[in-house]
């Protein structure tokens, strides 16, 4: 079989270990008591709702996958412009992503009542159940991700034929990269659909429940309450998981492809460069597991202490991986290992800076959110203006962090030789892998949030002792903070991953040209003139071509109108996509409002607590709304890169990706931070400031929070998917683009 | 003197003609009666307020100009990295722009009472006074713009020395381009300061007046009323005028520079290519004057008829200029004249499409705005969500229009030879000139709006017959529509102008390298290695270098991390700039609110109509607020391109410009359209829909309108300036950037 050195087996081993620990945490959670019959009943409603949503979503996803797999097959076997492995790789990427979402969400829905029940005993017991259930999600995502990568690596290594071992490595990595398309497509539906679902239910429940009927959050008399709790699971657990599954696999695969190209011609060194990101990820899994075991707290812990115990786990994992990276790359004996290790650390640091900046801008312990709070005193309009202004300003630090991250990871990996494009870009990929290496634990803290939130809902609806609700509220408040930083992390990692994907796009173009060359000279004539001239005259070999050559051949420079046109379209697509998802939430929420009003009118005694609301119907409405509403944005996200490629070629596509990435990243940060700030500005008022609950300022702050809901939980996170998916679509379509462009 | 062919004299002649007609319209407006003593008094208050603002602003601008001119002098005479003409050109650009703003605004403040008075006689009389006063602004802008261009052309042609006539032409045009920096800097202060002023006064007046005290708009009892009316003049007249003055001069100068480079080596043809944009602009002036005379209406005209009469003038001018272009370029005997004429028409068409799309999305006669209106039924949050979503979606058509505009103007001018970068980019410049060729009349319709608005305010405050107010309301409503399309036009022309400036940046870099070469080989060593190697070894001559060569030398391709970093910073800067201006409005409005509340408390009998409010103090507060608040965004807009150039070099700067342009353009369209839609959604409800005035839906719609105010009148329009100014700063700093970059 060739190129499998023993160290490679660490990768599947870590994957299996992650899954084993996930199983262990799942079993130990399941052994916990689910509480009173009422608690079980509520949990069952939510579980059923979540599963019915997932079933419905997977139906839509299945159709999309069949259509796309058929399309890829035609491209591969009919037109010969694509790798024959793509349809299969695409399907497994989608399957594993969906499986991770399924397991994570199912775990979460089993865990909420158990968390509430454990919170009857102690805060620590509650935290433990919730956090370890979140860890199931984290470990399943990284475990299945690395498992899929390992299997494909072994399969392709065994089956692929190539003129030389080094070319084989290039072919393996570029082929594997396309399985990310499956993960991307599934993530699109999970994130966008889940995001629309959760906010349609939330906004709908709040508008009629809190505002019109004046009943509290999570009140069982509100027919949309169960849908709202289901939403936390489908949006914040399954959606977030699919998003980060995609970033995780995408960054590792893109970096492997960049490594195969950068170390072309260096023999065994190439293999080491390819598996380096996988090994870093594998070791990251082990260290994440250690971090997870470190998370515990004592009874009566303050918010700060709770946050401290989560941060302890994350920070220990991060510091250990930073140290371990030097060891790994030294053991691998990779060229320039010390500086490349610094690129990994750059990625980790960028993640931390973005997280801290998110915390600063969205926590009501700091000035920006308090100012938004204060603006609520003047009314609805000023709280909105203030939140929008603050959100826009808050984009500066994350962008500067990413800019410094790109610069230093590039310069380190290229050994400060600016002209060494391939090594520099490999460094950017390595930084993305570094940032995501501790995903096992960071995702655990993310998934923990909605579990705690649901536990609170369960406690409320089951009428448990107020002390229990107080404890779950403490867990939930912690969850809000981790959710905000988790969002920042998701956006930052999406940006770096998208950059790595963008860089590896060139590799796919190379392969595409080779395929054309193999198909005969007639096809070559459709290439840009410089390229075809070079190939035909034999002065240019594709394999010897540098990245700079490719940029030159396809004129991927900023004076090429195709690049400029691409940038405009990319920027516009980010806004269009956000607008469509915003409006989708608006429309779906509207339907929910009408249904809740209808139930209040038609079902007697709901508000008096004597009638039972029809929860299932609200769940069904949100499910249907999400399915219908996600079609248009999803279709655009897939079609526009393809159409741009057909009309404007490689230069147009790269412009599109860069424009979409730049605008999409900044827009996503803006939306996430504005939404988080409005949320906490409201909480700050509810804590008794500026008039407290029920004051005019509070009403204005609720407006801000409601506007912020689709910002931070639908449109903002959906942009993470968009910027990665555009790159993935372009990568998979590289063969088509290179052989066919109109202008 | 050389290269002055007789046809050139058409340019200064048209400029003088524009100024003569402006004088004629001004005189005829001044002859009209200003009405009752009360009307004169109100007008005097507004005029004094506007002039005191302008005086204050010009003080700040003067300081900024002294600092910048000193800085440019150091660069030119101290470090030798800049053209020695720049400091002078910079100052005249600023002076003429400020003069145009001064004349336009002074005219507007003389015209409002006269419009109200004329409206006592008939609607047509009112329209005539208002529109012709607006035409003063339009004609002064184009007249002074072309005059400045003509004078500099003659001066430089007389004084500059160059090895060959063709190189001289390149030097003249690249030097002239830098006078745009003066216009840009002055526009920055006019647009940003004016934008903050007008919305601080408007939001402040509305929040206390309409919402708290329950008195109508423009009520003389509201102390902020005069400031509000002053705001219309400083923001919508002076700010808009400075914005378009910059676009007008910038597009003509950039196209001339691109023409000088594209037609290098073609003898007399080069001169023709350079003056072609000037001649098109000159003929556009004549045709605009014809259009202005066509605008008239009959008594009792409906909104549609009023709009029709304005559109008649604009459309006739546009059709005539389209036809005239073919004639001009044929007479000039320019190579490829027929296809280049098509590029002009492309520009005109893009302008029209953007205008129509703005009208569609912001008029309450069409669906999108009605949906925003309907969302107000559900409350404050939904009207905001709906407006934001709609605004984001509304970016698609303008972007597609610009994309098609870029594509076709490039392809036409390059005679469908994609690789002919310099001709293609010349075509994009020509399209920008085409779009702006009828500025004389389009700006007249823009400036007309605030005059009509102020006339309404004057009629209200002077207690004129309700019939008069009804007539001024009709004129004002028309003004709102023209203001919306005018905004779209301003954004679209800013985008095309910025593109032309971006393309001409390369020319400045060329000149910068030449200067370095002349200064000796030591300096050459600081250039990118490929460039310096080529120059030193004599294999590369700067003059023979194509645009593609430059892109290659500086690696201005999308895989260069400096370009990517630049794109991120550019995208972020657009958001940061908008966020700062949003917050500026919030803070300045807050101060206004406190002052108005204070006056209501301290000055007895204001609300009963027996006490006189202290209008001047409110004017002073808005003035001060605007001056203070514009410092940070203005400084960032100037400094960030310079810093990016110093750190990341030419590639970083070009990335910055493209990222800022892509994101800034889309963000500006989003903000303008969302703001316009909220404004008209409120008006639609006020017309009696969804509950009408005073209903909860109306309150929610007022929230939307208030949020939309800084969107459409401060942050959105300020982005027009940002995207052009960034290019201008980079152009002026080209010498520094090329000789000094860190990474």
TrEMBL record, chains A, B:
<comment type="function">
    <text>Sodium pump that utilizes the energy of pyrophosphate hydrolysis as the driving force for Na(+) movement across the membrane.</text>
</comment>
<feature type="transmembrane region" description="Helical">
    <location>
        <begin position="85"/>
        <end position="108"/>
    </location>
</feature>
<keyword id="KW-0739">Sodium transport</keyword>
<feature type="transmembrane region" description="Helical">
    <location>
        <begin position="721"/>
        <end position="742"/>
    </location>
</feature>
<dbReference type="GO" id="GO:0030955">
    <property type="term" value="F:potassium ion binding"/>
</dbReference>
<keyword id="KW-0460">Magnesium</keyword>
<feature type="transmembrane region" description="Helical">
    <location>
        <begin position="129"/>
        <end position="154"/>
    </location>
</feature>
<keyword id="KW-0472">Membrane</keyword>
<feature type="transmembrane region" description="Helical">
    <location>
        <begin position="60"/>
        <end position="79"/>
    </location>
</feature>
<keyword id="KW-0406">Ion transport</keyword>
<feature type="transmembrane region" description="Helical">
    <location>
        <begin position="561"/>
        <end position="582"/>
    </location>
</feature>
<dbReference type="GO" id="GO:0009678">
    <property type="term" value="F:diphosphate hydrolysis-driven proton transmembrane transporter activity"/>
</dbReference>
<dbReference type="GO" id="GO:0004427">
    <property type="term" value="F:inorganic diphosphate phosphatase activity"/>
</dbReference>
<dbReference type="GO" id="GO:0005886">
    <property type="term" value="C:plasma membrane"/>
</dbReference>
<protein>
    <recommendedName>
        <fullName>Putative K(+)-stimulated pyrophosphate-energized sodium pump</fullName>
        <ecNumber>7.2.3.1</ecNumber>
    </recommendedName>
</protein>
<keyword id="KW-0630">Potassium</keyword>
<feature type="transmembrane region" description="Helical">
    <location>
        <begin position="6"/>
        <end position="26"/>
    </location>
</feature>
<comment type="subunit">
    <text>Homodimer.</text>
</comment>
<keyword id="KW-0915">Sodium</keyword>
<keyword id="KW-0813">Transport</keyword>
<dbReference type="GO" id="GO:0000287">
    <property type="term" value="F:magnesium ion binding"/>
</dbReference>
<feature type="site" description="Determinant of potassium dependence">
    <location>
        <position position="483"/>
    </location>
</feature>
<feature type="transmembrane region" description="Helical">
    <location>
        <begin position="337"/>
        <end position="357"/>
    </location>
</feature>
<dbReference type="GO" id="GO:0012505">
    <property type="term" value="C:endomembrane system"/>
</dbReference>
<dbReference type="Pfam" id="PF03030">
    <property type="entry name" value="H_PPase"/>
</dbReference>
<keyword id="KW-1133">Transmembrane helix</keyword>
<keyword id="KW-0812">Transmembrane</keyword>
<feature type="transmembrane region" description="Helical">
    <location>
        <begin position="248"/>
        <end position="268"/>
    </location>
</feature>
<comment type="similarity">
    <text>Belongs to the H(+)-translocating pyrophosphatase (TC 3.A.10) family. K(+)-stimulated subfamily.</text>
</comment>
<feature type="transmembrane region" description="Helical">
    <location>
        <begin position="378"/>
        <end position="411"/>
    </location>
</feature>
<dbReference type="InterPro" id="IPR004131">
    <property type="entry name" value="PPase-energised_H-pump"/>
</dbReference>
<feature type="transmembrane region" description="Helical">
    <location>
        <begin position="657"/>
        <end position="678"/>
    </location>
</feature>
<feature type="transmembrane region" description="Helical">
    <location>
        <begin position="423"/>
        <end position="444"/>
    </location>
</feature>
<feature type="transmembrane region" description="Helical">
    <location>
        <begin position="274"/>
        <end position="295"/>
    </location>
</feature>
<keyword id="KW-1278">Translocase</keyword>
<dbReference type="GO" id="GO:0006814">
    <property type="term" value="P:sodium ion transport"/>
</dbReference>
<feature type="transmembrane region" description="Helical">
    <location>
        <begin position="631"/>
        <end position="651"/>
    </location>
</feature>
<keyword id="KW-1003">Cell membrane</keyword>
<feature type="transmembrane region" description="Helical">
    <location>
        <begin position="169"/>
        <end position="189"/>
    </location>
</feature>
<feature type="transmembrane region" description="Helical">
    <location>
        <begin position="307"/>
        <end position="331"/>
    </location>
</feature>
């Amino acid at each position: 079989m060739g190129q499998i050195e023993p160290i490679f087996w660490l990768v599947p081993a870590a994957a299996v270990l992650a899954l084993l620990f996930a199983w262990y945490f799942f079993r130990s959670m399941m052994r916990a008591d689910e509480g009173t019959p009422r608690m079980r009943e509520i949990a069952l409603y939510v579980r059923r709702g979540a599963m019915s949503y997932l079933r419905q979503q997977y139906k839509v996803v299945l159709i999309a996958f069949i259509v796309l797999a058929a399309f890829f097959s035609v491209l591969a076997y009919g037109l010969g412009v694509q790798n024959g492995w793509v349809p299969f790789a695409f399907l497994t990427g989608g399957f594993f992503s969906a499986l991770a979402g399924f397991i994570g969400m199912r775990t979460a829905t089993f865990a909420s009542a158990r968390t509430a029940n454990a919170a009857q005993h102690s805060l620590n017991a509650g935290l433990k159940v919730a956090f370890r259930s979140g860890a199931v999600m984290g470990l399943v995502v990284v475990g299945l991700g690395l498992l899929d990568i390992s299997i494909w690596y072994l399969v392709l290594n065994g089956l692929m034929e190539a003129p030389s071992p080094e070319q084989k490595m290039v072919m393996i990595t570029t082929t594997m990269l396309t399985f990310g398309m499956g993960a991307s497509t599934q993530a699109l539906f999970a994130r966008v659909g889940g995001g629309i679902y959760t906010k349609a239910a939330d906004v709908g429940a709040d508008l009629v429940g809190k505002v019109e009927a004046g009943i509290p959050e999570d009140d069982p008399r509100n027919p949309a309450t169960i849908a709202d709790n289901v939403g936390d699971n489908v949006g914040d657990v399954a959606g977030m998981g699919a998003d980060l599954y995609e970033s995780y696999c995408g960054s590792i695969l893109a970096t492997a492809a960049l490594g195969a190209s950068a170390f072309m011609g260096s023999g065994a060194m190439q293999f080491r460069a390819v598996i380096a990101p996988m090994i870093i990820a594998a070791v990251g899994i082990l260290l994440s597991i250690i971090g997870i075991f470190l998370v515990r707290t004592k009874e009566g812990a303050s918010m700060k202490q709770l946050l401290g115990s989560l941060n302890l786990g994350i920070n220990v994992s991060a510091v250990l991986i930073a140290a371990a990276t030097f060891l790994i790359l030294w053991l691998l004996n990779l060229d320039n290992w010390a500086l490349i290790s610094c690129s990994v650390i750059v990625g980790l640091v960028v993640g931390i800076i973005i997280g801290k900046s998110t915390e600063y801008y969205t926590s009501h312990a700091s000035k920006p959110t308090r100012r938004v709070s204060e603006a609520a005193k003047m009314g609805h309009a000023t709280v909105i203006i203030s939140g929008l202004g603050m959100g826009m300003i808050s984009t500066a630090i994350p962008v500067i962090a990413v800019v410094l991250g790109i610069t230093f990871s590039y310069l380190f990996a290229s050994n400060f030789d600016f002209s060494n494009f391939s090594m520099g870009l490999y460094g950017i990929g390595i930084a993305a892998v570094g940032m995501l290496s501790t995903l096992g634990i960071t995702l655990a803290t993310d998934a923990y949030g909605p579990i705690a939130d649901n536990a609170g809902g369960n406690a409320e609806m089951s009428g448990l002792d107020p002390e229990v609700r107080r404890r779950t509220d403490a867990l939930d408040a912690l969850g809000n903070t981790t959710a905000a930083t988790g969002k920042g992390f998701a956006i930052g990692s999406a940006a770096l991953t998208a950059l790595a994907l963008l860089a590896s796009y060139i590799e796919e173009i190379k392969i595409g040209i080779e395929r054309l060359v193999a198909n005969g000279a007639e096809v070559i004539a459709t290439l840009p003139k410089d390229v075809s001239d070079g190939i035909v005259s034999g002065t240019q070999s594709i394999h010897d071509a540098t990245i700079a050559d490719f940029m030159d051949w396809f004129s991927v420079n900023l004076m090429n109108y195709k690049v400029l046109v691409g940038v405009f379209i990319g920027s516009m697509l980010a806004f269009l996509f956000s607008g469509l998802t915003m409006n989708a939430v608006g429309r779906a929420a509207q339907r929910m409002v009408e249904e809740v009003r209808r139930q209040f009118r038609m079902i007697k005694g709901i508000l008096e607590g004597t009638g039972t609301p029809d929860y299932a119907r609200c769940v069904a409405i949100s499910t249907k709304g999400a399915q219908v509403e996600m079609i248009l944005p999803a279709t655009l996200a897939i079609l526009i890169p393809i159409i741009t490629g057909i009309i404007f070629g490689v230069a147009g596509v790269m412009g599109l990706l860069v424009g979409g990435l730049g605008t999409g990243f900044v827009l996503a940060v803006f939306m996430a931070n504005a939404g988080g700030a409005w949320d906490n500005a409201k909480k700050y008022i509810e804590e008794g400031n500026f008039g407290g609950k029920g004051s005019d300022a509070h009403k204005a702050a609720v407006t801000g929070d409601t506007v912020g809901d689709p910002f931070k939980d639908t449109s903002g996170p959906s942009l993470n998917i968009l910027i990665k998916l555009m790159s993935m679509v372009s990568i998979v379509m590289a063969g088509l683009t290179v052989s066919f462009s109109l202008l």
